Amino acid sequence: MSNTIGGWRFGPTWRWLGVAAVVQTAVLWTIIAQRQALLRDGKEIVLPVVPVDPRDLFRGDYVTLGYDLTPIKAMALDGRPSFDGLSKGAIAYVTLRQSVDDSWQVRSVSPRRPDRIDDGELVMKGRVAYHFGAAGSPDESIDVRFGIERYFVPEGTGALLETKLRDKAIKALVAVGADGAAGIKGLLIDGQRHEDPPLF
Amino acid sequence: MLGYKKRLAADLSRWKSNGWLTDVGEAQIARELASNRRDFGLASALGVLASVLLAFAVMSFVAAHWADIPRGARLAILFGSMWSGYAAAGVLTGRGHRGMSDAAILFAVAVFGASIALISQMFHIEGHAPDGVALWAAGAFLSGVVLRSSAALAFAMVLVAVWGGMETVEREAVFWPFLVGWTAVSSAFVWQRWRPGLHLSALTLSAFVIALGYVLSDGHDHALVVALGLMAVVSVLAIERLEPAWHVAVEPVVGYGLVTTFFGAMALQFGENPTGVALIVMASLTLLLMVGAIAYGMSTHRSSTIWLGYLGFSIEILALYVNTIGTILGTSLFFLVAGVLVAALAALAWRLAHRTAKSEASP
Lengths: 200, 363
Fold this sequence. Notes:
The complex is a heterodimer of chains A (about 200) and B (about 375).
Chain A: E1 4-5, E2 8-9, H1 14-41, E3 43-51, E4 58-59, E5 62-67, E6 72-73, E7 91-98, E8 104-110, E9 121-132, E10 141-145, E11 150-152, H2 158-166, E12 170-176, E13 182-189, E14 192-195
Chain B: H1 2-17, H2 23-36, H3 41-64, H4 71-94, H5 98-122, H6 129-146, H7 150-171, H8 177-191, H9 195-215, H10 222-242, H11 247-271, H12 276-300, H13 303-324, H14 331-361
Helix pairs in contact in B: 3-5, 4-5, 5-6, 5-7, 6-7, 7-8, 7-9, 8-9, 9-10, 9-11, 10-11, 11-12, 11-13, 12-13, 12-14, 13-14
């Protein structure tokens, strides 16, 4: 009962072991390369960080970073849209516009990628974490996570960051790719850049 | 295996003393048994456990010292561990240690998953955790298929279940893509003719169906669970009639179908607060189903069905007792009803035993 498909005999032979190792390494390498490319080529924006929950800021060895972009209130957006199709777990494309003071404000949210992006705007892709209020109601709002909410720190070095975070002395350096993916490049602590050098 | 050997040894001596078996025949049976034995079963099992521990060691070492080790070196440790696992599998296969080779493959697959997590940590990728689990499952599936590794495939099924569970909890809706992963891994189990894997498939599918009851119709679709469970039981019995060759599938499918039905029935009776009459009707039907399972198991000599029937009957009685104290039924009335039911069961069992004895006496 040899298991073959189209003449291929499978089993832990050196050939198939090589295939498994190479494919899995390639997958991991792709994750790294994509992330490196995003951090290198993505448009860099600076976002102020707000403490999320002062009582439980550290879970394990990462800091939870909160952003004042979210929760997004439907009432606060142009045209008072409804957040149909943006239920919990759905992908959300959030269009940001840079205001005169260089800060970024949410302009619109859509379940699909907008066709047109104006100058001074960019689109960040995220996932809806919560959808509050009924569609069309005045208190309708959504909480969106962009995948930039965790900053991993070496064990025991979190206390200083926690204090700085409370003093609002920390900003996040975020790279945003053309596809809307966002990644943390590093932190801006007291105006100083802290980021890991690229791997390659 | 040991139990089987012991029983066979007793049978062999009896058969020989009855004159049914020659000395040559006995020697041949003993040789056949010796060539089939799997004395390395324990060694392989320990190997699998060791590989899991070693994978944890790699993961926690890199996680704990990640600030001290440069990122390039961290990646080298991860990739190096994974490649060593596959190389060890090759060497062990060459020496004929198939079970140990499986353990080494499992180690490599575990390190693959650890690498996904640690690369995410390295680049502060919060991402969507279930996507990481899905990627891990795909890697385990690849290794399971191309290396014909049962351990890696079983692990892939566990990961598919974890992935489906995480997505379901997050969305609070049915996560149908689970079935795609489930079908892929189950097909590989069939292709590899690995029966324990099919039990794993049945177990995860049962859990999926039971979960449907808590997700569909705002979490109140347990009637569907009961219907699907009963459908599985009825279908496999019908298939057995048409194709007797399928008889090997009957006992497990009846078992998983019964368990699924029972979970749905429990949720309907005790999770949904039905009216008194509805509860009595549903409880009676559940008890009847369990008695039916016991009767069926006895008449076809399917012991797991008998035991599931006993277990279901007992849990049902216990649940009724706990949930009805001081409510719709008085405790004494409850005992009266339960007593009558059990007496009926005893009468049924007696009649069955009587009939079996009669049919055995006149073959």
